[in-house]
Amino acid sequence: MYHNNPFHNFEHASHVTASVKKLLTRIVNVDDGNGLRTQGDKIDLVDMAGHSYGITSDPLTQFSVVFSAIIHDMDHPGVPNVQLVKENTRNAQIFKKSVAEQNSVELAWSMLMSDEYGALRACIYHTEADLRRFRQLVVNTVMATDIVDKELQALRKARWETAFAKTPIQDASLSTSDDCKATIVIEHLIQASDVSHTMQHWHIYKSWNEKFFMECYAAYKAGRADSDPSENWYKGEIGFFDFYVIPLAKKLDNCGVFGVSSHEYLNYAQSNRDEWAREGEGIVSEYLVKYEDMATQQ
Length: 298
Fold this sequence. Notes:
Layout: H1 10-25, E1 36-39, E2 42-45, H2 59-71, H3 81-87, H4 90-95, H5 99-112, H6 118-124, H7 128-143, H8 150-163, H9 178-194, H10 202-221, H11 233-254, H12 260-297
Antiparallel strand pairs: 1-2
Helix pairs in contact: 1-2, 1-9, 2-7, 5-7, 7-9, 8-9, 9-11, 10-12, 11-12
């Protein structure tokens, strides 16, 4: 159910899933040795339901996030939601907003509910209550990957500021439960994983950045984009780092759940941003030459 897009393909889904798994296994106890318990030469992560807001002690939540990562871009058409709405595609008529994300959930859910996956469903849930919770977790997690919708952005920002305010909130009516905090942490976990290439080694970032450029440029050449992405790709990436990636990495640190991993993600993001600022303009020129070479070979 994944198309052969340069970026939004099954390889991307696998990369996101690997990042989700990495972050889930690095949820740590911030009050007990940064989540590490030393026994002789052996170091183990401490399971800490009280500090991870229940995530580490809830297998259904963990599976839901991994499942969501695998399916989050199913049937992705290789163009953004705004283009799907502009073209008035069938899915745009059905879903109105977060078109690609809602379509991915519905396709994956239909497959999961088929007879073929009865045994898998029996492993995931045993009660109607668990089924409802599983679906809600999947919907929330996949929808969190829509980072363009301004209304959703505003809601997430408000929830984050309420849950992780530096100044304790005195009004009990505004306090945030551990369940709500877990939801917020999961939203940011999947968002970081969706762009995890920006927070990894330079060569990984550059490879995925090229794939995404090729996808966007091909859409432009096919008449499915209003402007030439190459004209603003260099500056756009710097803005993406400054206003999304680096603040997101800082949030992973501020929520106090991921221990040293959050520092690792932030350091790579800042390093990649600086390297792109130095080399990015020349790299975009290389992308264009490579695209034209591939086009002439087809």
